[in-house]
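Researcher: Checking consistency across runs. Here is RGA10 again:
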Amino acid sequence: GMGGIGKTALAQSIYGDEKVKEHFELTMWVCISEEFDVKVIVEKIIESLTKMRPEPNLQLNTLQSMLREKIDGKKYLLVLDDVW
């Protein structure tokens, strides 16, 4: 949707709601830049989950495996903000 109409504010309100936090085992909030790079996005998702930045030289398939290990079988909410 158009910028400035409150999409992020609405998502933040839902993301921060106690019922939402109780419902999901994991919550992740990731800002996506205009330049779409899957490896960077996966790194940001892992960082959002672990609060630690993954090693910079890891291959995409390694990062995907790391992410899969963290979320497999869990109920999670992933918000991708600033998607172009």
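Researcher: Does this match what you'd expect to see?
Model: One thing to look at in this run: The beta strands are 26-31, 76-81.
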